[in-house]
Amino acid sequence: MLRTEDLGYWYQDKDQPLFQNINLEFETGQSYAILGHSGTGKTTFLSLIAGLDKPREGDIFLDDRSLKKIGLTNFRRHDVAIVFQAYNLFTYMSPLNNLLTAMAITGASHAGDKGYAQRILNDLGIGDDLITRNVQQLSGGQQQRVAIARTMCCDARLVVADEPTGNLDEDNTQAVIAQFQRIAHEQKKCVIIVTHEPDVAAQCDHQYRLENKQFVQLA
Amino acid sequence: MNFFKRAWLNVWAKKGRSVLLILVSSAILMFVLAGLLIRSAAVKAMETAKNDAGATMTLSANRQAAFKKMQSSSSSSSSKSSRPKLTLTPVKLSDATKIAKLSNIKSYNVISSTTANAKSYDTVSTSTGMGGNSGGPGGMKATGSSSGDTQIDGVTSTALTTAFANSQSKLTKGRGITAADKGTNHVVIEKDLASQNNLTVGDTMTVKETTGSKSTVKVKVVGIYKASSTSAASAGPMSTDPANTIYASYTLANTIKGSKYAGTADSVTFNVKNPAQVSATKKAGNQLISSKYALSTDDASYQSIKSSMNNVEGFANKIVWLVAIAGTIILALIVILMIRERRFEIGVLLSLGEARWKIVAQFFTEMLMVIVIALAIAGVGGKFVGNQLGSQLVSQSTTTQTTSSGSTGQPGGSGQPGGSGGSGMRGGAGGPGSTTTNRAKTQNPNLEISVSAVDLAELGGFGLAITFLSIMIASGGILRLEPKKVLIS
Ligand SMILES: Nc1ncnc2c1ncn2[C@@H]1O[C@H](COP(=O)(O)OP(=O)(O)OP(=O)(O)O)[C@@H](O)[C@H]1O
Ligand SMILES: [Mg+2]
């Protein structure tokens, strides 16, 4: 579904690229983990496939259509859902309104369907007593689950997450990873997670490590 | 629209911040409104002052033309012994009525002055220096001189004269001369003259003509006035004591002057309705009269009020713009800080694929909600601020006003026999009787501060413009913001 072609990126000068000549393919219904040492460029790579930045070299294709052609804003709105380590939510809204707002902006098929958003939140353990509260009154784990619920209620087939469990304890980490697996397997989406934790990576269907400017698939 | 809902959720969820924004915006708008109120009040006061201050136009003999004629006759004349005389043609009343029909003329006053000699009474003599050789009251009168000891000012209405309009002379008993006294022998005499001769309203007295048959004329006292000391200055050095001035209808003055003066006047003063159009009226009037006559205008009082009101208006305009600009800058800075603080939210919106203009629209809507409430608060508070500022400004402008009217207020009609108080007559005259109050208003232009729908609409316009501009200035940040930099660090 998503394919990179000779992808390359560098910040200051061409002599020190973070990665170069990257040719990878990501399929729907599968989950992918990206591991690597700090500062190797995992987040940078993710920002490219999430349409938050333009590649320096090469191109990214969604179903054989170049992201340049689709347009980054358009791509972000319709084709990708992003979960960050923090600051995912609108702080002045309830969990329910966070979902409804995302559905409205992306023009999701369930846009305006409160019951649908509520079911997804309940499914992720955000009870009815929490869904109309301000999100700032929720714990970090709960907030991260709301962010995941947001990716589930939108139609985007690509879900990318940058260290989504970085701030979570063991129980919450397990719950979040289980959710990502359900998104991949039940919703038939393509999930790409950047993580430091080998345990988290092990639960994904595929694992890649970014080292020496290349992505290496782990056995 | 989704951004509208977001704006509402944000304003509602962050009540404390919203209240602060409302307070700041109210303060800015209150000052804008105060400026707007003063400006519209200045415009209104200007309209009123225009009518109250008025301007006058005087019809009199064309001295310049007469002088030229005299010069040409003297150069053509071979005999140098006989000096040519400057002959001034009296104004024809038929011309005056033609001019009075012009649409911009409110009222007019016919002035015809002459002198007569006292017959049945004694004139008041001035007890200073030169009074000594005059040989007492009545001593040297009627010895061929054409100048008598009693000044007779014939007018249409005393209320329309400079002395009465300026309150230099005041009625103490009876009534003044009005248009209804035309053709009668009614007179208004000075208090000192009345008490010296034991005369009161209803009494009669006789005067003797100084020219022609020198017959006596019986007049009836209908009113007594008191001349203030300042009016003595206008009488000129040649005149007798100002107490010897008798007001009568101009017809009586004409009778005493002689039969050939019937239907004439020394001058006619017209009160103009709209002083701004005085020159156009003068032009129209000049086409109705021959070149033997001249129309002169006096709108000094109007001009001085106009300039002082223009000052107030200009000042108010400056306040409006200064406050609007300062307000825009202040609000823009606040919005810039607000947007910096909200960059994570903007980043999430951008990562969801929200259009940047819709994010700007959300901030604009939020500010609009704040501004609408601030407008209501400013509408109430602005009246208070405007009142304070308004009265401050009025007391300031009244001072300038009084000074300038003081310097222009001297009657200037010297030269013509008995013509004092003619052409120098200046504004302030309304209908008979209302003159004094009108003048009072003129000298204290009152800025009426009231919030009208127009003011509020204009304030709304300024509020919108300030909001729009400050959001535009601040949105540069939103448009440049990169979601990657915000969310991935
Ligand atoms: N905006 C930037 N300008 C210049 N250099 C940058 C910028 N952002 C990141 N870098 C550099 O690029 C390299 C890759 O950064 P990146 O955030 O992609 O690493 P990462 O693999 O996500 O690391 P971590 O595991 O610590 O999150 C780092 O050395 C970083 O210092
Ligand atoms: Mg990173």
TrEMBL record, chain A:
In this record, what's one Pfam family? ABC_tran
* Gene3D superfamilies named in the record: P-loop containing nucleotide triphosphate hydrolases (3.40.50.300)
Could you say which protein family the record assigns here? Answer: Belongs to the ABC transporter superfamily.
PANTHER family for this protein: CELL DIVISION ATP-BINDING PROTEIN FTSE, LIPOPROTEIN-RELEASING SYSTEM ATP-BINDING PROTEIN LOLD
Q: Which UniProt keywords apply?
A: ATP-binding, Nucleotide-binding, Transport
Sequence ranges assigned to domain ABC transporter in this UniProt record: 2-218
Recorded hits in CDD domains, A to Z, give: ABC_MJ0796_LolCDE_FtsE
* Entries under InterPro entries matching the protein: AAA+_ATPase (IPR003593), ABC_transporter-like_ATP-bd (IPR003439), ABC_transporter-like_CS (IPR017871), MacB-like_ATP-bd (IPR017911), P-loop_NTPase (IPR027417)
Q: What is this protein called?
A: Peptide ABC transporter ATPase
The GO terms this record gives for MF are: ATP binding; ATP hydrolysis activity
UniProtKB/TrEMBL annotation, chain B:
Entry-linked Pfam families:
FtsX
Intracellular or extracellular location(s) = Cell membrane
InterPro entries named among the record's database cross-references: ABC3_permease_C (IPR003838), Macrolide_Exporter_MacB (IPR050250)
Q: Gly residues compositional bias: what residue ranges?
A: 129-141, 409-433
Q: Where is this region: Disordered?
A: 122-150, 396-444
Q: Which residues cross the membrane?
A: 319-339, 359-380, 459-479
Name of the protein in its database record: Peptide ABC transporter permease
The record's keywords, sorted A to Z, are: Cell membrane, Membrane, Transmembrane, Transmembrane helix
Domain called ABC3 transporter permease C-terminal: residue spans: 319-393
Q: Where is the composition biased (Low complexity)?
A: 396-408
As for membrane topology, the entry says: Multi-pass membrane protein
